[in-house]
Amino acid sequence: CICSAYFHQAARVKSLGEYNDLRTGMPCHLHPTSALYGMGYTPDYIVYHELVFTSKEYMQCVTAVDPKWLAEMGPMFFSLREAGASRKKHADLHQAKMESEFQLAQEEEAARAAAERLRAQSRSASRSQIVTPGGANSIPRSKTPRRRTNI
């Protein structure tokens, strides 16, 4: 939840206690009052709420995050870089997935077109079966008897 709100204020560790902002590249430091400051180790990726500018840029309200969360919450800013072999494998899998989705979409479109043709044929067939009074294909009826006037 915190990562989804502050993904644009993320930083990556540069050295002990020093981070680089992922968007601007500006060097930042953990504020001494931060909970992560005296923890004994520095998390690789963090998000922060505010920067305090004094002699250095200090980050306050800092939370450690997983880099996968940043790529998921802010795909317009971040992406995951993979090693060469796995990157090729991932690209091949993505290509195969796209091709299967395209094939499925073509099959759905063909099925939709066939259903539309069947509907059009059934509409035209039902129109030809409608009988109108006095028409050529109407059922012959007996004539109404005339009224006798000389009784």
TrEMBL record:
Q: Give start and end of each DEAD-box helicase OB fold domain.
A: 1-75
Which GO MF terms are attached to this record?
hydrolase activity; RNA helicase activity
Q: Which Pfam families match?
A: OB_NTP_bind
Region Disordered: list its residue ranges.
113-151
Decide whether keyword Ligase is in the record.
no
- Enzyme Commission number(s): 3.6.4.13
InterPro entries for the chain: DEAD-box_helicase_OB_fold
Q: Which domain of life is it from?
A: Eukaryota
Q: Key word Kinase present in the record?
A: no
Q: Which UniProt keywords apply?
A: ATP-binding, Helicase, Hydrolase, Nucleotide-binding
* Annotated protein name in UniProt: Pre-mRNA-splicing factor ATP-dependent RNA helicase PRP16
Organism phylogeny: Eukaryota, Fungi, Fungi incertae sedis, Zoopagomycota, Kickxellomycotina
The gene is DHX38_1
